[in-house]
Specification:
The protein is 65% helix and 0% strand. The chain has 68 residues and is mainly α. The protein has one domain.
């Protein structure tokens, strides 16, 4: 499991009322069904990132990167 999925699962276990909201918001903003699994949501999010890079030529941001 990726690091982000691990964080999402941990947060949902700590605050279960957010799990339903997370899925509703993912369903509204990504191409996934309302009851999608976390893996499917993550794949849809990766697809969205790819499309943004291609369509808008956005540069991938890295938390550890230095500005030139």
């Amino acid at each position: 499991m990726s690091r982000i999925l691990t964080l999402i699962v941990a947060r949902q276990e700590q605050q279960p009322h957010l799990a339903d909201r997370f899925r509703r918001e993912a369903s509204a903003s990504l191409v996934v069904p309302a009851k999608a699994e976390l893996g499917d949501i993550f794949e849809a999010l990766e697809w969205r990132r790819l499309r943004l890079r291609q369509d808008q030529q956005l540069v991938e941001w890295s938390a550890g990167s230095e500005r030139a």
